[in-house]
Amino acid sequence: MMQPWIHKAKSDSLFILLPPFLVLAVIVFFQKEILWAEQHYSFYTWLFLIVFIDVAHVYATLFKTYFVASEFQKRKKLLIGLPILCLIIGMVLFSFGEAFFWSVLAYVAVFHFIRQQYGFMRLYSRNEAREKYSRYFDSLVIYTATGYPMLYWFLSPSRNFNWFMPREFLQFQNATLLETLQFGYVLVLVAYVVRTVYKAVKERYFNIPKNTVIVGTALSWYFGIVYFNNDLIFTALNVVSHGIPYMALVYLKEIESKNESSTGILQGLKNYKKIALYIGILLSIAFAEEYLWEVTVWQEHFSAVRFDLTTLHFLLVPLLVVPQFTHYILDGFIWKSK
Questions:
Q1: What is the model's pTM?
Q2: Exposed/middle/buried for 112, CB within 10 Å: 0-12, 13-18, 19+?
């Protein structure tokens, strides 16, 4: 059986499978330098990780939806109505308080991040025999690899990082429950290793990309949340492992693999020009959005330009979060296939 690459072995390996392993290797070998960079280059780490990866990956969705005429016509009601609905929901949530707004959004973001890993796992297991037990077990493994670190976070108030804002998750400290969950976590991962080895020997086939996604997910979530207790390390593992593969998936599946570009903007260009323009568009929109956040809401990094719009935050914050909120929900629709 052939390996179920989404595009090609080289491109999948470099841009979808490698990121969590590469980031973790950098963290392991350069911990002191990372801690130093966190103190001295916070603006540049924020710019690279948050703006140019985390925010930028949100807009990659445009190249599968709004920038694709046929896709837009097929999902016109969803693509027009969902951002409006997200704005309304955001304003309702914000009316209960800013803390409540960010808390709800954090839970939605966590679910979205978990589901992306599940989605990659399913993409890479699409050619395997459709045995219900196998699908259920693979799902159990990927949800355990992501779910246990989050539960550890909820049960360990001493974490030195947050998703959006401090105290955004409900927390409950219980050592006994934490030990029980840890036992279950280890049990599932050991069962996964034993079963994978057994199947590989029996069937003389090993699904490289699917198992790489599972292992990479388990490593990045465990070391990012449980093992290390550092904001920059968590952000790097979380953002790079999520954002880079998503941007690569959109490009490789929706642009590169098609005879014609999915958008008029990129149609007819050579590959290296397509890549440059694709990345340039994403970075430009991401920077523009984050600049608006900075000068109207956060006011942390661009001190020279500030506007006191506190009284308008009830509208500004839900409005600025619409692209992100829409991405979280829309992603659950646009990648589904039979």
A1: 0.92
A2: middle
